[in-house]
Fold these 3 entries.
Entry 1:
Amino acid sequence: MADQALKMATPETHLAFHYLLAKEARMLDEYCYTEWMELIAPEIHYSIPARRSHHIRDHREKDFRKFDTDHYDDDHESLLLRTMRLANPAGVSSNDPRPREIRVISNIEVFAQERPETYRVNSVIQLVRNRLLDDDSGIAGRREDLWRGSVAAGFLLVRRTVWISQNTILMPNMASIL
């Protein structure tokens, strides 16, 4: 397993991230985008790469985690615009009525990095979304985060890559933050 060389964070730090990720999910579920943006570092890189299926025999020839397109490829400014649009769905018919979303976070792993007060945090997210009477959809993925900060001072999200399980997003409207 590739993570064997990584240094596990202290139990206190791991617990702090467990609570932080649960709080982050609740903020997004409750449309608290201004508060969520306070967790975001100015140099954020937030991406959801497009996935492709490949035959196993082709795997040894290429790095399939490098792609030429992303579903999301956001910096701080584009995330701010995205959250402003989500916070005020009045002009966006696909968000009126506003969808009900629930995010479930699990499989949390926290690793201390060589740079002080920097942590790699892996987790799994499942988003369940309902908008109309029979409009249920969902998406799941593995998140690879880089956070900066401390238990005492708080943490900021520096980088998030979400590897969704689908090749094609099957949601009618993927106007959600993972």
Entry 2:
Amino acid sequence: MTTPFPSPSIPPTPRLLPWTTPDGDKPCYLLTDAEGGYLSDRADRMEAVQLDMGKGLLEHAQEMVDDPATDTRQLRFLSVQLGAALRDAVRIAESRGGGATARG
């Protein structure tokens, strides 16, 4: 029978996942001793989609800022979307930076 962790003295580092609990209130973590796996692969794909969407949004943002016909309502909506993309990017960076960190 195998144990869930390779060494009791060195447990695996929790991975911050790119989603929260269904109520959107709490972060979700993955604790595993193996590389890959269904949930880890799904998180990798979701992070890739989030980063690609952020890149596309940045390109679109530059076009909007350069267009004198863009109104304040459009810029406000754009800023909300850019904020969400930045939150996703920061979450991914924290996840890839060595595990979960608690911040107050």
Entry 3:
Amino acid sequence: MDDIAEKCGISKKTIYRHFQNKDDLLYEAIKLEAFEVKKNIDRIRLKNDNALEELQKFFKYINNVARVISPSFGRDLKKYHNSNLFKAITFKDKIIIPFVIGNLEKGKREGLYKEDIDAVEICKSYDELSNAVYFNYYFTDSSINSKSLEFLSTLFLYGLVSKIGWEHLHKP
């Protein structure tokens, strides 16, 4: 709290007037970020012609977010602020997961994704793998995490697409 107060140019007393403790401050920061993520996902959803373009822009956005969040943040959240970790996961489950499942169903209807994919299972698998990349104790460099997430997203995307989707991916 001392560091936060110093960087904000205010006293700790002022911070504690607005937040009960560190966990409360952290929760509010997570909530604010979740709101920003939702706003950007809604923007992505509205601006794209098809599910494939939508998913590509979503992956680009999420990878950019991952690039600026230190991997130690996830580890510290898990180690010292477990209740906030579960709240962050809840936001992800309410915002990101439904978006991706909806995108997968939309892509199947558009013929851009394989008809036989199970949107819920595929989404859960991607979520587990991306969590493993992000929360992995061996990764301490956010650029490595970002590159790993980009690679995982590319694999995920190519595993989804139908022949028509493949052609869309390779349009000049």
